[in-house]
Amino acid sequence: MKVPLLDLKAQFNTIRDEVNKKINEVLESQHFILGKEVQELEKKIADYVGTKYAIGVSSGTDALLIALMAIDLKPGDEVILPSYSFFATAGVVARMNAIPVFADINPYTFNINPLDIEKRITKKTRAIIPVHLYGQSCEMNEIINIAQKYKLKIIEDAAQAIGTQYKNGKKVGSIGDIGCFSFFPSKNLGCFGDGGIVTTNDNELGEKLRILRVHGSKPKYYHKIIGGNFRLDEIQAAVLNVKFPYLDKWSAKRRENADFYTNLFIQAGLSENAGRLVYDEKNLVLLPKPIYKGYKDSDDKEIINYHIYNQFVIRIQNRDALKKYLTDNGIGTEIYYPVPFHRQECFKYLNCDMNSFPISDDAALCSLALPIYPELSKEQMEYVVQKISDFYSVK
Ligand SMILES: *Cc1c(COP(=O)(O)O)cnc(C)c1O
Fold first, then answer.
1. Which residues pair with 334 in a beta bridge?
2. Is ligand 1 within 6 A of the CB of residue 180?
3. What is the pLDDT of residues 261-303, one digit of tens each?
4. Which of 216, 244, 272 is the last residue of a domain?
């Protein structure tokens, strides 16, 4: 049996006609840049995330970059972010000639540990970038308290977390000063190329982000500030407008799959329950546990999108051997991420203390993302768990 890590074709098969029709409309209009599709998408995302503004941009990376430009980050300013994330989170800070300062993560969630943030604050700290990794919210109340205490901006990296709710029911991207999302094809809401969006409730930042997107010009050809070309194009927005109504259904399916996997692992005797941190003979696989499941919002309604499972990441010993075994058996997996920031060659100049990120180091060594996409069948998931079980009994 073949189980790819992600099967975009399976999703496309369900929306082909709608997408083709919509793309064709854009082609017929020959209006490709910042037209009605982008406007429609911005309105939908602002409503969905719960912010006053949403501004479509060229990628998730550019969403982060433009956010840092909007808060007027200066060379030499320090920005605290997790040592364990996709490269863009750290790369954008360095590209602004600012200093990325890494904090270790929480072993249960893989998200930045607020206690470690506070330890790393200096007089130069300007902002925090919490990353809602794999689709689960960071501990935002704790992060907001720190930001208020030290007057820091919060730029949420919600690239993997569109729709994710924090324990109070608020959606990520509406909690900090600016939210940054990616529409890279492998995200829960993906376009047919690169795309992203930034969200904010702040009038001034909303206006500034919109101007920065078009080289800082307003009116056209008059530049008070320097921006760039950070535009989202109409074809990408059209695809996203077609996909958007399905997003919550797709994320719900990912959650179902996560529950199904969890039960299978427990039934197979590979794990006693989710959220364990220590291996033993009854817990060869450490399963992820959604920490805000069962929480209620301010209207006493149970929050649904407590985790959107952009990735379902288990931890195992002998990770690389298991990965190879699964590849040999037709199962796609991925390591997010094999090298934490403090160990990246490009960040050697920061002289990080290599001993102060033990949880990130462990995650880099043990984590493995399994296929979790919505169209996955029960038989495919059973096969994945069977093969993992076989690997451990073979040894
Ligand atoms: C995907 C991703 C990004 C970058 O998004 P792109 O659209 O690929 O530029 C940034 N941060 C995180 C955590 C991501 O997963």
1. 369
2. no
3. 999 999 999 999 999 999 999 999 999 999 999 999 989 999 9
4. 244
